[in-house]
Amino acid sequence: xxxxxxxxxxxxxxxxxxxxxxxxxxxxxxxxxxxxxxxxxxxxxxxxxxxxxxxxxxxxxxxxxxxxxxxxxxxxxxxxxxxxxxxxxxxxxxxxxxxxxxxxxxxxxxxxxxxxxxxxxxxxxxxxxxxxxxxxxxxxxxxxxxxxxxxxxxxxxxxxxxxxxxxxxxxxxxxxxxxxxxxxxxxxxxxxxxxxxxxxxxxxxxxxxxxxxxxxxxxxxxxxxxxxxxxxxxxxxxxxxxxxxxxxxxxxxxxxxxxxxxxxxxxxxxxxxxxxxxxxxxxxxxxxxxxxxxxxxxxxxxxxxxx
Length: 307
Ligand SMILES: Nc1nc2c(c(=O)[nH]1)N[C@@H](CN(C=O)c1ccc(C(=O)N[C@@H](CCC(=O)O)C(=O)O)cc1)CN2
Known about the structure:
307 residues, 2 domains, globular, histidine biosynthesis, amino-acid biosynthesis, hydrolase
């Protein structure tokens, strides 16, 4: 194993602060043009982690000048009541973005709820209209975590064309959209998952590894090529020495001996997810008001040709 001379520990908090500063400037431009961007955040139940994420989303919105409208519903809310709320938010011209915090309680059909959101207000980019548009390279709202990862990769590597990227995980929220965005950036993309044969060997070929599989410290140093760039999307809470701590899908300490750049957990990808939610709220406001949409402002504007 060759160790890399200088390792860049990618500071996701600093990168997110830069994105939020861009958002603040754009919000102020939109307000001058008479538009006050607004984000509706819907939380069903009282999952402690979801409560923290929602609180942080509302705080970031306030800091950037976006109006936030919180809808907190009890855990036993019926699916039809949630659908009725979404219908109301879809029809409210003062609401530009709608976010339903996941996971939802088990009695609610997540897919039905996500499909009910107006695709133009779908700031999570989870509606099938936006999912399809992303894979076709259309200018659509893109899931926040993959969009944040792309910004970190571009800041770190510059042009990504020709790089071999391995995405570990095939979720609808991260793995699949991540693969689509890397393809648009002209990477060669391999998607691997829990059932893949030769997971380690495939990873060892990668210039870029995006780990989004939800398995604490799965990726060890001997899975990584010398000089690889690693984006760790995993947020796993484990008990260690009687203490609870957050770790990623990558064994950070061992990877440090091999990689050229890596995101830490916490403080890597997580803060970018919320920063790109604010970007998407602005993009949604512009999509709903085409007169303000003279310049493409989508965070991940697709490349014109994909083949
Ligand atoms: N509707 C959505 N639901 C969920 C999404 C999403 O993008 N849309 N993603 C995750 C949760 N999530 C945002 O909602 C999220 C997760 C983690 C972080 C974050 O900043 N993490 C910190 C650590 C936080 C901690 O100490 O617990 C970090 O990595 O530094 C932000 C947002 C599932 N649901």
